[in-house]
Amino acid sequence: GESVGLHLPTLSVQEGDNSIINCAYSNSASDYFIWYKQESGKGPQFIIDIRSNMDKRQGQRVTVLLNKTVKHLSLQIAATQPGDSAVYFCAEIPYGNKLVFGAGTILRVKS
Amino acid sequence: GAVVSQHPSWVICKSGTSVKIECRSLDFQATTMFWYRQFPKQSLMLMATSNEGSKATYEQGVEKDKFLINHASLTLSTLTVTSAHPEDSSFYICSAFRGATDTQYFGPGTRLTVL
Q1: Is A28 left (phi over 0), alpha (psi -120 to 50) or beta?
Q2: Which of A1, A89, B105, B107 is deepest in the core (most CB within 10 A)?
């Protein structure tokens, strides 16, 4: 079936370094993508989104890149902080308003 | 703005009992809400789409008679896990779709443990 997958299940970075979390999606019809952050025991928190008519979008310390040719998303976090430690999910909307979540990447920030 | 709450935040029940989880959009109206289930170290899996005033739409493999969904108002959807068993233990998360921003807002989740 349709799925959104992640390349790396766990990413460990040193505090202050930049983090890059990757995601591959499979539905070429998806035109909207979202990155979520989920802390332990909490619901997902919206980080940033991007539509298929864009290649890049920047937020505060975060940047999302979309490569439609290879169906790849990435989330870049600048100057990673201990508070960034969480599980990160990419999600796509292939139709309607239904979100399809990827497997998730655990980001561990070492002080 | 755009706050979604869930109640309870955690619940422990005996096998065979039923448990109701509430999802409320506190500052906006949501004609559509979604229910997800998340097992430890796994992703969120959509269980069903809850539509105000009509029957819920369940994803393939989700038993509608076991997971009863009621969306009686524009700010409240409930999920009832009937005759719960230990394998139903999970983290249940709801989201509410806000049309004005074309965005789903997630609740904090409910941890269900069935003994």
Answers
A1: alpha
A2: B107
Best mutation target, B43, B90, B98, to test chain A (most A CBs within 10 A): B43
Total residue length of chain A: 111
DSSP letter string over A37-103? EE-TTS--EEEEEEETT-SEEE-SSEEEEEETTTTEEEEEESS--GGG-EEEEEEE-SSTT--EE--
Measured distance CA(B72)–CA(B20) in Å, rounded = 14
Cα gap B94→B47, rounded to integer Å: 10
- Name the DSSP class of B43: -
The predicted pLDDT at position A4 comes to: 53
Contacts of A31 (CB under 8 A, 6+ apart): A51, A52, A53, A93
Is residue A33 within 8 angstroms of chain B, CB to CB? no
Is A101 close to B42, i.e. CB distance below 8 A? no
Q: What is the mean pLDDT of chain B?
A: 94
